[in-house]
Amino acid sequence: MSQASKRILSILLSLAILIAAIVVYSSFVVPAYADVSEMRSEFNAKQEAVDEQREIVNEVENLLSTYLSIPQLEEALSVSVPNSEDLASAFNQIHALAREYGLLVQQFGANSSLPNQLRNLEGEDSPLRNKGVVQIETTLVGSYQSIKSFIEALEINIRIMDIVGVRVRPTAEAGQNSFIATLTINTYYQSDGN
Predict the structure, then answer these.
(1) Dihedral of alpha carbons 86, 87, 90, 95, sign
(2) pLDDT single digits (tens) 29-59
(3) Are residues 45 and 140 in the same domain?
(4) Mean pLDDT of the chain, nearest integer
């Protein structure tokens, strides 16, 4: 075979290999690539569904944890607004705060026969229905700053207490920073009756 025929044969063989490669590419690779693209889009759709399900599961877990913490909320609420008058606890809290601020407690008194002022405050569906009110009157002796600090601490006390009246007058001892404060305090409780 001559050199020219070898070149032509080699070009034809290269051309045949090129055509075979194109045929193989178009027959096998393009459909496989289409299948891979379809599988990839299906995978992405399933991944999005899984992500959405995870979000739903997280929301359900959050709701469950909130639901399970309701007894703790009820316990905290029963400390802030007890299920009965619980005057001993109210007196203990007032006495402890007075002692903490260096005040001398001269008098305690309570009146639980007040009309229930909260009964219809917010309507029939209100969480404020059936709340009782106890009015406590206490007389304290101490410095003006101690009385002021006591009142500020009473405002953030764990049991809900509203100061509805304050009378401050100096003690009989002249020249001293000593005052007598008479406080009227409303505290609340949850009552069963109407």
Answers:
(1) negative
(2) 888 888 889 999 999 999 999 999 999 999 9
(3) no
(4) 83
Among 22, 45, 68, which residue terminates a domain? 68
Residues 96-114, mean pLDDT to the nearest whole number: 87
Q: What is the DSSP string of 84-117?
A: S--HHHHHHHHHHHHHHTTPEEEEEEEE--S--T
The model's pTM: 0.56
Q: pLDDT band at 94, cuts 50/70/90?
A: very high
Check which CATH number belongs to the domain holding 109 and give it.
Answer: 3.30.70.60
* Mean pLDDT calculated for residue range 138-151: 93
Query: Residue 190 has which token pair?
Result: 């949850």
CA distance 179 to 60: 57
Between the alpha carbon of residue 44 and those of residues 29, 63, 99, the distances in Å are 22, 29, 67
Domain range for 106: 81-190
Residue 76 lies in a domain: no
Q: Is-contact 109 138, C-beta < 8 A?
A: yes
- Residue 29 corresponds to which tokens in the numbers above? 């690779």
Domains of the chain: total = 2
Residues 24 and 63 in one domain: yes
